[in-house]
Specification:
The structure is a homodimer. Chain A is an alpha/beta fold. Chain A has 10 helices and 18 strands. In chain A, the strands form 4 sheets. In chain A, strands 6-5-4-3-2-1-18 form a 7-stranded mixed sheet. A 7-stranded mixed sheet of chain A has the order 7-8-9-14-15-16-17, with helices on one face. A two-stranded antiparallel sheet of chain A has the order 10-13. The first copy, chain A, starts with a strand and ends with a strand. Chains A, B: Keywords: Endonuclease, Hydrolase, Metal-binding, Nuclease, tRNA processing, Zinc.
Chain lengths: 304, 304
């Protein structure tokens, strides 16, 4: 059973407090550790959660507000100091490359590993990363500046060998790989055994959608439909809905509505404004419309 | 009795650990709070030490390596979010303005308060700030990139009124201000009382010199001569003197030698490489040449 593991490195909104961190998450999916957003202090949070820097090869930045990317120059510098040589891919809005590389350049601190920026500028969901097991798509969001959420999806895996059936038909091991790929088998007597008699359905692919920062935006529902887990920002409570609209953010209730419409497996809230003292109010508010709600908290891990 | 108060916000060198911070200090001198260097996470450290953001009006950046200035964009953004309107002056190497403002610009996050950069590029000590009570000079250092230390000096204050003498001569209060400025007083009978009969010497002006990062550099001795307190980096121990030279840093012993030659009132060590586990070794090593040695530690305060 493969699970996705999500580390919340920071989940507060812009104004810092003494013991909270701005947005950053690390998603373990298949063999990847994807870093999602990189607010100031992210490298320290990675250290605290004992996530190996060398395993991070892809960083996804939603937008260029400080609380989502000011930790990037420091992390890139640290990679260099640690002697990294594996390439690093950074996905983020147009402009990120110039700003971040200039921060390194003024200190003559070029990276000694390949640093590849993938600048984003479209307003439709697009595939930005793919390998044999995972796909990553953008989720265009609605904020004060150009912003994308990200959808991380496992690809449908091989079918599972039904070992009893295979032994029953006395099928040679050399066919197993092809059977898992969906092929039928022709026995020595010339008869054909259909693949569905030899295999079981693969595990349903899991998926994670990260949506921050954004106003309430129903257009994202088809993109995140039925994801295993949705993180949706909830900067405000319903009492400040007007403020949410003005600043390009959502309320906890709006996050719940999106979760319900998209019929997701679970909803994680975060990006709380520091004006609220009791985070449970966010949970209670979202629960009015959607059942499976959890609160992001710095240092928390989710397995799904 | 006026003391200077130095807050150590962070004192480790570049590679971050889970619970240490890169270089930043806040110096309280007269009515100022001067921020010196601003490594990543400085704004959080300021919060933890309950230093009021609004009181910081001058920031001095020694050089453009990440562990000394990557916290600046975040701090400037936070000032904006908090509705600051008082001007902020930033002193640092040429290039700082373009890099830092671009980080804000890509997120459409211009400051709504006046942000004035003072770019430094000379290699001789120069006066960069002055008001009626304080002067700040650069201390040209020797590092891998253009680097300045900073010398913060109180100006010599007014002479102190010797209240017994003044009453004895039955001098009218309206003369007090002039007496403190050093003037003699002519009595009603035409006789003159010399100022030194009416006043005491003012308190000796205090001073603080911040020297990080730098190789051993004797040229700085005349500039920091007899300062009340010297902070001098000690990235390495003597056993790694060669490495110190190669990387543009100093050993604890070298810091001690500079302190001794400059006959300073006290020496604070810092900017420790994370390769060492026992900081007391730094102190012991410096003490071999200079007596009054203290260790900077994150969160520590020095009064002098």
């Amino acid at each position: 059973m493969n699970n996705l593991k999500l580390h919340i490195l920071g989940c507060y909104s812009a104004t810092p407090r003494a013991f909270t961190n701005p947005t950053a998450q690390a998603l373990e999916i298949k063999n990847h550790i994807f870093l999602i957003d990189c607010g100031e202090g992210t490298q320290v949070q990675l250290r605290r959660q004992k996530i190996k820097f060398a395993r991070i090869k892809h960083i996804f930045i939603s937008h260029l507000h400080g609380d989502h990317f000011f930790g990037l120059p420091g992390l890139l510098s640290t990679f260099r100091l640690l002697g990294r040589d594996t390439p690093l891919h950074v996905y983020g809005p147009k402009g990120i490359k110039e700003a971040v590389t200039l921060m390194l350049k003024v200190g003559s601190a070029w990276t000694n590993y390949p640093l590849i920026f993938h600048e984003l500028e479209t307003n439709t969901s697009e595939l930005i990363f793919e390998d044999d097991k995972v796909e990553v798509f953008t989720i265009p969001l609605k904020h004060r500046v150009y912003t994308n959420g990200f959808l991380f999806k496992e690809k449908l895996g091989d079918r599972k060998l039904d070992i009893n059936a295979v032994l029953n038909y006395n099928i040679d091991k050399c066919f197993y790989q092809n059977i898992k790929k969906g092929k039928d088998v022709t026995l020595d007597d010339g008869s054909v055994v259909a693949n569905d008699k030899l295999t079981l359905d693969p595990q349903k692919p899991k998926s994670y959608a990260f949506c921050s920062d954004t106003s309430y935006k129903e257009d994202i529902v088809p993109i995140i439909k039925e994801v295993t887990m949705l993180y949706h920002e909830s900067t405000f409570l319903e009492q400040h809905e007007k403020l949410a609209l003005e600043t390009g953010h959502s309320t906890a209730k709006q996050a719940g509505i999106i979760a319900k419409k998209a019929a997701v497996g679970g909803l994680i809230l975060g990006h709380y404004s520091t004006r609220y003292n009791d985070l449970n109010e966010f949970k209670e508010e979202a629960k009015q419309v959607f059942d499976k709600v959890a609160l992001a908290e710095d240092g928390k891990e989710f397995l799904f």
